[in-house]
Amino acid sequence: MSHEVSDSHSAAAAVTNTSAASLPSALMQLDGLPAELYSAIISHLPADSFQQDVLALTRAIPKSPVPIHHLFEHIRLKNAQQIVQLYSRLRNATDERNWVKDFSIVTWTVDADVLVNLLGILPRISSLLLFVGPNFAPEHLEEIFHKPREDLRFLSLRFRPYVKQASYYQFLKGAYFDTTLTALSRWPSYKLPTLSIVQDPPEPLISSAKHFAQPLVFFRLEPISVLLCSAYSSSLTHLRLRIPSRQISRFISSIPSSVPALRLLDLSTCIILASDMEGILIRFHGLQHLILDGCSVARDQSQTMEWNNIGKICATATVRRAKAREKELKIWLEHNAATATTPAGMPQAAARRIRPGRRGLATATISFREEPTVSEPDVTHVPAGIVIPKVRVVPSPPTLLSLSTSASFITDVQHQTIREEFEKGWNEGLVQLAAVKSRLYQSWKNGVRMMRITADVSGGGYDGLEAIDIENAFHSERDDNTSLAPPVLCLAGSGTSGKHCRGLQS
Q1: DSSP labels for 88-139?
Q2: How many beta carbons lie within 10 A of that of residue 208, not counting itself?
Q3: Which of the four pLDDT bands, split at 50, 70 and 90, describes residue 169?
Q4: 245 backbone φψ class: left, alpha, beta (φ>0; ψ -120 to 50)
Q5: DSSP 473
Q6: How many CB atoms lie within 10 A of CB 364?
Q7: pLDDT band of 16, cuts 50, 70, 90
């Protein structure tokens, strides 16, 4: 037995000596690797610990040619002191400033003035995430976004007017961040694929215990319309606007030609009804993913017929979009015909003259109602004998691939029933769509001019429309109802613990 123990100790010692002897040679081999190979390895590191992993790598193999600029590419600051330290480090370092690409502030308590100075010396940021807490004033964000950033591809602003204790201080102070949206709307048409603006809802324990109402971050919502209609937003494909308990739909769906390239829209926590969802689908012709967590799209989530109607809305929105575009084109054609036949110098029909005299004591001189965002077009009188060409717009197939919302207090059996009713409504809507296209096909055979929507552009006339000259446009493979699978309906909400539906396979 003693011989066996001594043999095992000798074997372990031999392995240890061999490992110790081979360690310097292994380090020498790592020293000989090219810097490009280290960059390729570093590219696979997780984003959350990227900076720490690169720092550990440089200390573990100090003589290896690990590119130092990777230390500054992804910066994620979690406390206020780190912001001060980084500013002191980069204030006089010209090269290191240009290395910063991904910059995130994930703490609510910061020295906003120092952060403004730090962002002012970082010109090449492509991804920016900011937690905007109670230490921020609107003027800070105005200064941050005063100068356009051409390289920015991802912008995320997360607002929380309070941290641990509920407070109306910002509200009483009149500090609203409407000017932040206005500042962004002045930027040129750079390529910005992703924009996220989120206001954190109050925590349930705080709001219920102290009857704390939702504080306002944006006093007015009109700046949202201004931003979405700006040249800077023309390249947006992913948009998240989470402003709790605010009716935001009309500020994004009633504006023509806003965000023409939009593919994903997240309006969670806003007030969005089924009618609002229909307006959104009509407005954005290429929308593929719609997220409405916490919006109560269905008035009664337990009523399955509500979800049948929602499924039908998702399938027939293109029909209503085509009719709306057809109406716009008709108005444009009538206006052209009227102006073309009116001799130069001839006055137009005068508006109704207001008669003088007493108007009555009950007539109000002011109104508290908000003026409509889009005015109705004036009625155009076409002279007799002028024939307006008849043009019809053929609806396109639906593009929606997924609809995510939250349905609380519903059992698994009800979840399945809701999805079945949603798919049933979707299929019924496709039947209606096919019937409309069949009627338009017969009209096309009888000589009526047909067009289809190809782009979401501003202006009137035939902009964004394409003439249909072949029969296949009515019966393409994409128009086949069997190939148009219903959108994925997820009712689990935004959390990770719910039973989420499996996504689409690419």
Answers
A1: HHHTT-HHHHHH--EEEE--S---HHHHHHHHHT-TT-SEEEEEE-TT--HH
A2: 10
A3: low
A4: left
A5: G
A6: 6
A7: very low
Tell me, rounded to whole angstroms, the distance of Cα 70 from its chain centroid. Answer: 29
User: Within 13 Å of residue 27, how many CA atoms lie on the same side as its CB?
Assistant: 12
Kindly indicate the confidence band of residue 143, based on its pLDDT and cuts at 50, 70 and 90.
very high
Question: Which residue pairs, CB below 8 angstroms and at least 24 apart, start in 417-421?
Answer: 417/304, 418/301, 418/304, 418/307, 418/489, 418/491, 419/307, 419/489, 419/491, 420/304, 421/304, 421/305, 421/307, 421/308, 421/311
Q: Give tens-digit pLDDT for 78-105.
A: 999 999 999 998 988 888 888 899 999 9
Cα–Cα distance between 265 and 287 in angstroms, integer? 8
What integer pLDDT is reported at residue 469 of this predicted model?
A: 83
CA atoms within 13 A on the CB side of 158: 12
> Residue 17 above 50 pLDDT?
no
Q: In degrees to the nearest 10, what's the CA dihedral of 473, 450, 309, 482?
A: -10
Q: Look at residues 16, 22, 61 and name the one whose alpha carbon lies nearest to residue 38.
A: 61
CA 15/CA 4 separation, integer angstroms: 17
Phi-psi region of 387 (alpha: psi -120 to 50; beta: other; left: phi over 0): beta
Q: What region, left, alpha or beta, does residue 31 occupy, with left being phi > 0 and alpha being psi -120 to 50 degrees?
A: alpha
- Which helix (H) or strand (E) segment holds residue 58: the answer is helix 50-60
Contact indicator for 311, 382 with CB cutoff of 8 Å: no
Beta strands 238-242 and 488-490: pairing type?
A: unpaired
Count of residues in the chain? 506
Give the span between the Cα atoms of 13 and 401, in whole angstroms. Answer: 63
Global pTM reads 0.80
Token match 């709307």: residue?
185
